[in-house]
Amino acid sequence: xxxxxxxxxxxVRFLTKELGGNKILKGITFNVVxxxxxxxxxxxxxxxxxxxxxxxxxxxxxx
Length: 63
Known about the structure:
mainly beta; two-stranded antiparallel sheet; 1 helix; globular; ABC_transporter-like_ATP-bd
């Protein structure tokens, strides 16, 4: 998604991923702006790797 803010490098809105009928990711929304560092933190199974795989188009997301 393209943002109107020129400093925004990544903009994610309502990212959702289902696996086997279960919502793995539920409406994740965030921005990464220029000169900002973002960390995805959470316990095992929280969806950190799945989020990155979706951003890299390595898996299909729900539209």
